[in-house]
Amino acid sequence: MGDGEPRGRMLGRRSVLASGVAGLAALSIGLTADLDTRPAVQYMDESNVLIEQVHSQARNCPVHLVTMFPKGVAREGLPVCLMLHGRFGDARKSAGGLPTWLSDAVAARRIPPFAFLAVDGGGNSYWHRWPGDDPMSMLLHEVPRWLAERRLGGPSGQPFAAAGISMGGFGALLYARRRLEQGNPLSAAAVVSPALITSWREMSKRRAFANEAEWAAMDPLRHIDELGDVPLGVWCGTEDRFIEGTRRFIHAAQPEYASTTPGGHNSRYYRKALPEVVDFVGGQLARSRKK
Hints:
disordered N terminus, two-stranded antiparallel ribbon, alpha/beta, 11 strands
């Protein structure tokens, strides 16, 4: 979608819309201290955030789980959407205003209630397997068990959706592909400023993949058909450094919803896009329940 093209035009079976989003360094809930010296569980009533630390065998290290709930609803059995953090981020920097936006949308009855779960995936992992560290396996095999133990996500504990910012957007699309390969597709995937880099020369600077072939095997831009029919939402500012790759993705994937409006790769843009992500994910949850 070019800047001069009409907004809201139809592309195949999915509509690509431009919203009123205006242009993350980091979205933080103000918890940057090492939680190893604190209780294993920390509950923040004022923002409906539950912070826990568990050991991930797949990642071979402790990880934080940050669960964000809407206020005023029963929590047991709530569906769960993953929220994957960006490069050099972590779960505790993934909440920001999400609990408030989620609570407001549920209270207004725009969407059914659900929860977000953020988990540490490594600062430069792009959510794929490294020697001795496999965040994607954690998402696919450990997260469902952790959720089921907490009576979230239904009996199987499987997240119904995935969302992500920047590197987390790359990871959310890769996760959606892996879920389809498992025969258990997502009901929605939503990505904000996804780190869809268009050249190996640029990607290699990040030292996130062993070689070009490994990157090519996971790059969402090269595997759009392998996402199947999962409803997609895509947001990116027109001044964002990843806008070229995002536009290519929008053109090829024809997502259910897409927004390319003024903004950069920063918290100002993210804080305006994420409330729309909440509504998009919740809307897809409502639609999946009617099927």
